[in-house]
Amino acid sequence: MTEKTYPKVGGRSAKITLVLLVIVYIFNFVDRQILSVLAEDIKADLNITDSDLGFLFGTAFAVFYSIFGIPLGKLADSWSRKNLLSIGLATWSLMTVLSGTAKSFGALSVYRVGVGIGESSASPSSYSILSDYFSPKIRSTILSIYSSGVYLGAGIGLFLGGWIVELWTNAFPDPNLAPLGLKGWQAAFMLVGLPGIVLACFTWRIKEPKRGGSEGIESLQEESSPFKSMLDEFIGISPFIILQDKSPLTALLINVVIASVISLTCYGLYLITNDLIQWLAFGVGIYLLSCWIQGLKNRDPITFGL
Fold this sequence. Notes:
InterPro entries: MFS (IPR011701), MFS_dom (IPR020846), MFS_spinster-like (IPR044770), MFS_trans_sf (IPR036259). By secondary structure, the protein is mainly alpha-helical.
């Protein structure tokens, strides 16, 4: 059996991959930030409140981004990182396109959740790929270049969203005469989402670097059952995982106290803001993350100690 060959550390493939990953990060934040510049048009068209927008921009995205980021990060440690990145990119880009078809607050919420889940795969995969593609001597510089995508994407997203809405509205003052009957904000979602799906075809062709190769580590291999490891992390988010603790009654008591504090806090915030969905989703997200931290004590004591 011939030994598998890997691209050279710091070579041509590494530089091409860096450029691609910066572009992916730009798309990541374009799709994430564009909602803010489209907010007023969405409010008027879907008849939603500022609180609803806050849910779309924050909670619907952030809670699921955080929850799915943990198991998807584990998958990036044990499966093909470029495949995970490409699937995530295609997913959040498709969800951005579908956001342009939304006719209700509920539908747009579902698509924003999808954007959050898809984007949660990007950073773990990209950081891991870049760390193996470039030596530790220049890694900080490489990661700084990669991180520039945050600010480029945020700026481009704000500009592009407003520009598309203005052009579309001027070209089609009557939405009924526009292609597919789309309004400006709907066209903006679709036009910024579609290129991401095309970009996913290019990231799929990234050459996977050897794990640990940039530091001369020979023993790092992909796991034989990577999806089982990811599933274990999903199970680790479940509150039932605490029953595996060496002292299950103590763990259960701690969990109940945490759940009570979160519930009372979110209920108080609901009374102040009268925004049930926002604080319910926020509370569930915080509770599940606390369950994951509790379960981590048994699954990975070293990480828990950190």
